[in-house]
Amino acid sequence: MTTFDLFVIIIAAALIHASFQLSVSVLTLLSSHTLGAKRSQARLLRLTSSFASGVGVMTALLLAATAFTVSVFARHGIDPVLWVAACGLLFGLGFAVWVFYFRRDNGTTLWIPRGMARYLEDRTKATSLSAEAFGLGLGSVLGEVLFVVGPTLVAALALVQLPSEFQLAAVALYTVLSMLSLLIVHVLVSGGHKISKIQRWREDNKNFLQFAAGSAMIALGFYIYVDHVLTHAVLAAAGGV
Amino acid sequence: MSSQLIDVVKRGGARPTESFQAEKLVQSILAACNSVQAPDGEAATAARSVHAAVLVWCDDKSEITSSDIRRIAAHHLKKIHPEAAYIYKHHRLVL
Fold first, then answer.
1. Which residues contact A129 (CB under 8 A, 6 or more apart)?
2. Residues B19, B93: Cα–Cα separation, whole Å
3. What are the Cα distances from residue B42, in Å, to B25, B39, B47?
């Protein structure tokens, strides 16, 4: 597997991660509460920037921790069975996202544990300091870990096979790309766009977002299965490897 | 009936009932208007108007739910400020 192939997997996994919506929802809610309490635009920018930083730090930590765990269990290279397991996870999560990701009510409520959603909602309302917003960012990534575990595992499997000089850059690339949707909303909110318009767009397009996230996971699982599992097996059977 | 004598059943009945507090309604309408960057005067007018409409609606009732208040308030706010009404109605449906 070439470095280019591994980077393609990491980029694809990061973009799938970016399609998950919990952090965007929390950012929207945080902005709404901050503006509703008549706090200044500068305070809004500080809070949303701290929140985005928290999301970034937790995403990087999650990827690094997963990669470390993988490297501990696969000291002598990645066994194809690990790729098969990762593909299975992507297929399973892809179908689950198609069926379950957004609840069927109005709004953009997600199929995350209701206790966690209520906790995040209450914390968002109570957040007035940058440090609290940073912690909220950390928590919002953990709240969605059930869904992001798929792309994170695949990216970690690719990450540990990269030459060591590229690994840090790959973690940074994954983190930035996985925050793409959050950063877009952050820029829109900071630029003075109305929260209602952003939220309405998200609600109107939630079915598409759900379909795209699920399909992308299945497509990535299929690509990895064909390119890294099936091709190896066929070449090995033909005596080419 | 005085608004102070109306019991409000909280979300899902899980939390204890409390008496109707007009100030909470006004503050929530103001917050919704502020979050869509409505001018202060417009927000205050909307809050007063919605407050009056909700008082008229609950005048003959001794017990209402917090969802009722939200629904009626959103209905009236929508006529005055649709963007604020959207935020007011949906803020519990974001996560």
1. none
2. 25
3. 16, 5, 9
How wide is the angle at C-alpha A171 spanned by C-alphas A226 and A209, nearest 5°? 60
Overall domain count for chain A: 1
How do beta strands B18-19 and B7-9 pair?
A: antiparallel
User: Residue A15 has which token pair?
Assistant: 């973009």
Query: pTM of the entire structure?
Result: 0.90
Euclidean distance between CA atoms A126 and A136, whole angstroms: 10
Contacts of A23 (CB under 8 A, 6+ apart): A51, A55, A137, A140, A141, A144, A179, A182
Nearest to A107 among B32, B37, B90 (CB): B90
Rounded CA separation B30/B39 (Å):
10
Q: Is residue B42 within 8 Å of residue B81, measured between CB atoms? A: yes
Number of domains in chain B: 1
The one-letter amino acid code at A33 reads H
A22 and chain B in contact, CB less than 8 A: yes
What is the three-class DSSP state of B4? helix
More confident residue, B94 or A96: A96
Measured CA to CA, the distance from residue B84 to residue B82 in angstroms comes to 6
CB–CB of A192 and B32 under 8 A? no
CA distance A102 to chain B (A): 10
ipTM over 0.95: no
**Vertex B86 angle, CA B81 and B87, to 5°:** 105
φ, ψ of residue B89 in degrees (nearest 5): -75, -35
| Token reading at A86 | 């990762």
For B80-93, the pLDDT digits (tens) are 999 999 999 888 88
* Structural domain that includes position B83: 3-93
